[in-house]
Known about the structure:
Non-ribosomal Peptide Synthetase Peptidyl Carrier Protein, Chain A
Amino acid sequence: MGAREQLSLDRIRADVLEILQADVDEVADDDDLIDHGLDSIRVMHLVERWRAEGAHVSFVQLAEQPTIQGWHGLLGT
């Protein structure tokens, strides 16, 4: 994938649902994830997971757009 790992929408969604312990029908792609219980610790966990796979993303970037759709815009294919 080159210098920047690109994550699919399905992968981002799956990782978010896993960390929130939510079902797919509970969280829409454009929902504010803070409203679903996403906190800074969980965001940092996702940042570390995705960085370990080669993604170039920061906590601040994710915190500014706390939606699956927003994150796909930053990380997606």
